[in-house]
Amino acid sequence: MFDSLERVLKHGEKLGLDYIEVRGEEFTMTNIELVDEHISYHRRSERGFFVRVLYKGSWGQSCTTTEKKLLEALEQAYKAAKASPGTVSLKEIKPIKDNVRKGLKIGNISPEEKIELLRDIRTSILDKDKKGLVKSTKVRYRDKEGRKYIMTSEGTEISHDTDYVWRYVWVSGKLGEKSQGVRDERGDSWRGFKVLEVEYGPEKVAEILIRRLYGQLEGKAVRPGTYDIVVAPEVVGVIAHEALGHLVEADLTMSGALANKLGEKIAPDHINIVDDGRLENGFGTEIYDDEGVPTRRVEIVKNGVLTEVLTNREYAQKFNLKLTGNARAEDYMYPPIIRMRNTFFLPGDYSRDELFEGIRDGIYVVSFIGGQADLSSSFHVGVQEAYYIKNGEIMGPAYIGAITGVALEWLWKIDALANDLDFETGRCGKGQEALVSSGGPHIRVRGIKLG
Questions:
Q1: Distance linking the first and last C-alpha atoms of the chain
Q2: pLDDT value of position 144
Q3: Each residue of 336-351: pLDDT tens digit?
Q4: Residue 279's closest CA among 437, 441, 103?
């Protein structure tokens, strides 16, 4: 692969380009879906290339699936860059040569074993549905195994594995006239199939989903009002990601609620939020980003102060920021853009049980179903599992359609963080898909309007 990329670089040097970046990728992807008893199976292999060049401050880019057309793709990128002048320049980096292996062995898992896992999940769900409320199930599975390569005119030469496994389960049910659906999503890019088979295996996911479904169907609706709430790590994570994380992606920061707030206090001293590119077993973890920049832990909020934002080489140079290794591309058809990796609140000093103490009439929010936010930091997070808190004790299921708020206001209402830490895994969309983790400890938030 590198021989082909090198030919592009040599040809590009003759054109007088300021910077040349060539990425190659080859992979095989398997998609399986079990809808009730109906199975569908699809497996495909792809190989492609992405060429990006910088000429007199202007980007040009092109992609191709044919190695023979690589030089043609370079010429197209060159023409695009010449079409209009620009002001882009890149933060200087030290060229790196490396070969990263994850060691996953997805190819050792047969199609029959993968299909059996999906069927075992469905069977476990139906077995645990003692009340007969489940009406339909959908189980999706995806895995990817392959390699990607990057070579630049500066001397960077990196190859690394792109392997991962992922599964998504949806269960819908009905009680009387009330219908609800609940979900569970898990992915892993470092340990592999055993995570879905054992750690988050059929029995566990079935237990989780039946509990959520029964709670949604039987839970008593929360009366509109103001409550003290305890939020579990999964929901803490989606707030960190949707309502705060996107605001610190440098290509969005300057047009959002955090514009010009770098170095300012935006939360109490006990609030610390990070995006960690090298989190152990994180779904968004990689050693290098798709510009060849080493990833690292980014201290977004430290002791309540907005300390860092997420960058690529262009925005780090443009705003005189540090490089963070957050340039990511979904695959060879896309340019790298600024994306989160593993975004989470750091733990505090309280035990989980201490967070419930003193709450006379509150709500415990455990799991979410969909979330969105805008650049004002306003967010809307659907809730699929919640419970009443009465005199410090967790009681029966509560039904809440969603929690909403303004994240920059919520931060000041968090008065306690537990000393635990957990994560949810999923996919983030920003014009292209990125694998991410998000999470944190249990937190307590005072005076939140619900209903």
A1: 56
A2: 97
A3: 999 999 999 999 999 9
A4: 437
